Amino acid sequence: MSEEKETKVAVHRPPVAFRPQGGLVATNFEEAFRMASAFAGSGMVPKAYADKPEACFVAMQMGAEIGLPALQAIQNIAVINGKPGIYGDIGKALLLQAGCIIDEDDTEVVQKNGRARCKITRPGRPAVERTFSVENAKTAGLWGKRGRDGQDTPWITYPKRMLQMRA
Hints:
The chain is an alpha+beta fold. It is built from eight helices and seven strands.
C-alpha cells in the first residue's frame, strides 16, 4: 500500500513597497487588494468602507487618480448615494497644492449673511467665485436633511460648514 502525502503549494504574495515618507505603495492589483482588505478589516475606516475591501479598493484607485496616497483616499473620499467624491478639506488641500489661491468667507460671515462665498484663482486663469445660500440648500432639499437611517447629517450638525463646502 502506498501512502499519499499531501503537498502544500506555497502561494506567492508579491511584496508591497514601503516608502519612508509615504507609507505603503501597491504596484499591482494583488498588492492593492491586499492593502484594501487590511484597511477594510482594521476597524479604522469610515463606515462605508468597514469590511468592504472592494469599496476600499475603489477609493484607493480614485485617490491615486487625483494624487492621494491610499489611506488618505479612504479617509477623504466619501460615498454619498453610491457615488464616491472628495470630502471636506481635502479638495481645498489639492487646490492649494496645485498653486491655487482660495478666498472664502469665514464662519461668522456665513452666519451673518446666510450664505457662503468662495473665490478660487488658478495660476494663469481668471478667478471663479461661487456662493451657496441657506435658500439654495432648502431648494435642493439639503437644509435640515436627515440620513436614510434617521441619523443626523452634516446639514443638521454643521450647516454653516456645509454651505462653505458647497460654495
